[in-house]
Amino acid sequence: MIAVGQKMPEWVNTGIDTYQRRMPAHLPLMVREIAAEPRPRQATGNVSKLMDAEAERIRQAIPDQAICVAMEVKGSSWSTESLASRFAEWMQSGQDICFLIGGPDGLQPDLSRQCQSRWSLGALTLPHPLVRVIIAEQLYRAHTILTGHPYHRG
């Protein structure tokens, strides 16, 4: 995961750590935090410049040849089984997979369009720290589906 925002609440770190420990060594789950641009207390209309700066830092953090998935409210909704199927395809590719989580204003539109997929966790607006934990859990769940582990009882 490459996520805008640092200094997450302890519950976020605990949640992610839980799923990082559960993932096998050959499928490490890593989180790279990117500094958010400071937002003025009052909106000034320069949000696109802030998002551009965050997008540039995200781009620098993406490994070469990685498959990128933009986390977007307007993205496609995937079932857990669909995610598991994609996960299997991604593992076969041998490429790194990056889930991109934007800052308070989301991902910069050009960055999102450059991603191979856009995934929505639903129409709800979720706090970005919670999105990190949900992605970590769903990746672990996808792994258990593919390995026949009883964790997923869907």
What does this structure look like?
Helix 1 packs parallel to helix 5 (128-147). The protein is built from five helices and five strands; from the N terminus they run E-H-E-H-E-H-E-H-E-H. It is 44% helix and 17% strand. It has 154 residues and is an alpha/beta fold. It has a five-stranded parallel sheet with strand order 2-1-4-3-5, with helices on both faces. It has helices spanning 10-22, 47-61, 80-93, 109-114, 128-147; strands at residues 2-4, 32-34, 67-77, 97-101, 117-120. The chain has a single domain (2-35, 51-147), classed as SPOUT methyltransferase, trefoil knot domain (Alpha/beta knot, 3-Layer(aba) Sandwich), CATH 3.40.1280.
